[in-house]
Design a protein that fits this description.
By secondary structure, this protein is α/β, with parallel strands linked by helices. It has three domains: 114 residues, no CATH class; 224 residues, P-loop containing nucleotide triphosphate hydrolases (Rossmann fold); 31 residues, no CATH class. 48% of the residues lie in helices and 15% in strands. The protein contains 14 helices and ten strands. The strands form two sheets. The protein has a six-stranded mixed sheet, sandwiched between helices. A four-stranded antiparallel sheet has the order 2-1-4-5, covered by helices on one side. Strand 9 and strand 10 form a beta hairpin. The model has no long low-confidence stretch (mean pLDDT 87). It binds adenosine-5'-triphosphate (ATP). Adenosine-5'-triphosphate binds next to helix 5.
């Protein structure tokens, strides 16, 4: 019976449509303002104004038609009538109740989406697959080489994925495609089951956060607090909720005592932790670390890696870490190996490290621990794969 009622898919479609038509309306408004400006400067004829007024009128009418759709109200009324048919003892009562509660939730959320004009609404997760790429392909210019070549991969919610590959193999380009800074020339991408298009990018993007390589290029605020607040303000988060969100995010990276400090006075590791807090404050489900530790000193690297492992252990976030630090792959659930724009291997660290000669053939180092394991094996001492040095030493002691 549930099939005949609306569900999260319909709500997502509605939000995306609202968002698309709101963008068109905003665009028409912008064009109208630009035209008025040109007319006042004598660059356009007054009569042209009418064309833009008409365009704006049509865009507004189309937006209102979408926003006024009665489908969620009708769905709710149907579910209500159906629910009222059953008494508590009826075997169909429970299912009808669930449908009624769900229809009420969908109606409430559809109203909220209209109020926010589809822009600040969140999409529902339609699947446990955090990211699915199908044949994603990209080149920087139409006649320049393909730098991301038919990449297909499926990553589940809560996984920690290390992306490795030699310089120029396409790792950063891939991350820019995922966050929507670049547009693929072919292939497709879904985030939690939501197919990403040019039109819905700004709403799907809310699932994503990114931390870049250079800690100095990521600051906008004059204090740590202002900096974390910046993204929240951009999302028009209720100011009453802001302080709590800032403190929670700062605590997660152990920077809660630095909220009034000037970001530029912090160490590299601390700056990166603030950048992580700024990303976390927006509650993204997926975080991309784009070589986030590569510019830090050993202490800073250690601090940031600790936070990344802590985040992994909560399993609340899906994490992608683009890295040159081969030791980091031992912390990952899965490893993507890029070579010349292609995803040449995808698997657990153990699977990836099985074929060491292959890794060497594409100019990748073997993690230090794996090198020690390899040398021990040559001496006839076989130890199973270890995630860190302490674990390895423990195993050697037992031999
Ligand atoms: N803005 C750009 N315009 C043109 N080509 C680019 C641009 N950025 C990167 N490339 C090219 O795209 C290819 C992939 O680069 P990308 O930065 O994605 O690789 P990467 O694996 O992240 O490298 P690195 O480890 O050095 O950061 C390279 O050949 C690079 O020269």
């Amino acid at each position: 019976m549930k099939d005949i009622y609306l569900n999260n898919n319909d709500l997502n479609d509605f939000k995306l449509k609202l968002n698309e038509y709101n963008d068109r309306l905003a665009h028409a408004g912008q064009e109208y303002v630009e035209m008025k400006f040109k007319i006042s400067n004598g660059e356009s004829e007054k009569s042209e104004k009418l064309i833009y007024i008409e365009k704006h009128r049509i865009a507004k009418k189309e937006y209102n038609e979408i926003a006024k759709t009665p489908i969620f109200k009708d769905n709710f009324l149907r579910a209500k009538v159906n629910f009222q048919k059953y008494s508590k003892n009826d075997p169909k009562y429970q299912e009808a109740l669930e449908i009624y509660v769900e229809a009420k939730r969908l109606l409430k959320n559809s109203k909220l989406a209209i109020r926010e004009r589809g822009v600040s609404g969140e999409l529902s997760k339609l699947s446990n697959v955090a990211l699915e790429l199908k044949d994603l392909t990209f080149s920087y210019k139409s006649n320049s080489p393909i730098v991301v070549n038919k990449v297909s991969v499926k990553v589940n919610q809560g996984e920690y994925v290390a992306i490795i590959g030699h310089n120029g193999s396409g790792k950063s380009t891939l991350s820019k495609l995922i966050i929507g800074v670049l547009t693929p020339i072919s292939g497709s991408m879904s985030i939690f089951g939501n197919h990403v298009t040019r039109n819905n990018l700004n709403i799907v993007r809310k699932f994503l956060g990114i931390v870049f390589q250079n800690p100095d290029n990521q600051f906008i605020g004059s204090t740590v607090k202002d900096d974390i607040a910046f993204g929240l303000e951009n999302r028009r988060i209720d100011p009453k909720l802001m302080q709590e969100k800032i403190e929670t995010a700062a605590k997660k990276v152990r920077m809660e005592n630095f909220l009034d400090h000037e970001p530029l006075m912090l160490s590299g590791g601390q700056k990166q932790r603030v950048a992580i807090a700024s990303a976390l404050a927006l509650s993204p489900d997926i975080i991309i670390f784009d070589e986030a530790t590569s510019m830090l000193d050993p202490k800073g690297k250690r601090e940031v890696k600790e936070i990344m492992v802590e985040l992994k252990n909560t399993r609340e976030k899906t994490i992608f870490s683009i890295t040159h630090d081969m030791d980091e792959i031992l912390n990952a659930d899965k490893v993507m190996v890029m070579n010349n724009g292609k995803l040449v291997k995808f698997g657990s660290p153990e699977e990836i490290l099985e074929d060491r000669n292959f890794l060497r053939s594409i100019h990748l180092d073997i993690p230090f621990i794996a090198q020690v394991e390899e040398s021990l094996e040559e001496l006839g001492i076989k130890v199973s794969h270890s995630d860190n040095l302490d674990e390895l030493v423990g195993k050697i002691w037992k031999k």
